[in-house]
Design a protein that fits this description.
By secondary structure, the chain is an all-alpha fold. Helices cover 72% and strands 0% of the residues. It is globular, with a radius of gyration of 13 Å.
């Protein structure tokens, strides 16, 4: 699974120059976690990492170039992504 996440991180970092690799990793991990928990809450059976990877890749392709704009509007994510020195919180 780590290889899948790393590939998605690289894709997001390439798509969005406003994000460092570290912040791209935070985004991918947050999106992955939210997707899996939302999928489970909706009552769907777990379909595996392949499905999560596919969905996250679709989101990156659709919204990746402006995903950083979302953080300012959502306090759930803003505090996790707002750092001066690019370290992860």
């Amino acid at each position: 699974m780590e290889e899948r996440i790393e590939q998605l991180v690289q894709e997001l970092a390439e798509k969005n120059e406003a994000l460092s690799v570290a912040k791209a990793r935070v985004w991918v991990e947050l999106l992955w976690s939210d997707f899996e928990s939302s999928y489970a809450k909706a009552g769907y059976d777990y379909k595996g990492a392949e499905v999560a990877e596919k969905v996250i890749r679709q989101w990156i392709n659709s919204y990746g170039d402006r995903i950083h704009e979302f953080a300012g509007n959502n306090p759930k994510y803003a505090h996790l992504l707002k750092t001066e020195d690019d370290s992860l919180q």
